Amino acid sequence: TLVSRDTxxxxxxxxxxxxxxxxxxxxxxxxxxxxxxxxxxRFIRDRVIGIDTDxxxxxxxxRPPLSYDVLSINSGSTPSxxxxxxxxxxxxxxxxxxxxxxxxxxxxxxxESHDGTLSIAVIGGGAGGVELALAAQHVLTTNGASPAxxxxxxxxxxxxxxxxxxxxxxxxxxx
Length: 175
Hints:
Layout: E1 2-4, E2 8-10, H1 15-20, E3 29-31, H2 32-38, E4 43-45, E5 48-52, E6 57-60, E7 66-67, H3 87-90, H4 97-112, E8 119-123, H5 127-142, E9 148-152, H6 164-174
Parallel strand pairs: 1-4, 8-9
Antiparallel strand pairs: 2-3, 5-6, 6-7
């Protein structure tokens, strides 16, 4: 049984392509109902509000408790924006991804209607940060904006989990 509050879930690997305009929203999302049918599983659209481990049940918002023998919790990550000074006002969190598209669209409209020079910082030197920076740069410059981008990372090098030649090539591209 799969419980999710959404019937469509974004595929994170396609997010940069979606931002860049290479994919539609429909192409970058997975419809959970056919996926669960294919896997001979049951899909329940609801919100989990608690877990009773003594009774081995998941508590749902709009349905009776759901019993389980084995439970896998895959809630995704959500950054703690309030722990970083100014983040609530100036940052657009990518996660949870299901809420990112609306935030991205609002930011994009602000950028495209802004007169003057803009600087955009993307935090994260892994594949996600690099790909999102390039995707945002592509779509914004294609639509007439010309922001300056900065990629910020705590590491000494970008793309540390990739082969060195890949990191070197992308450092050149980003420069």
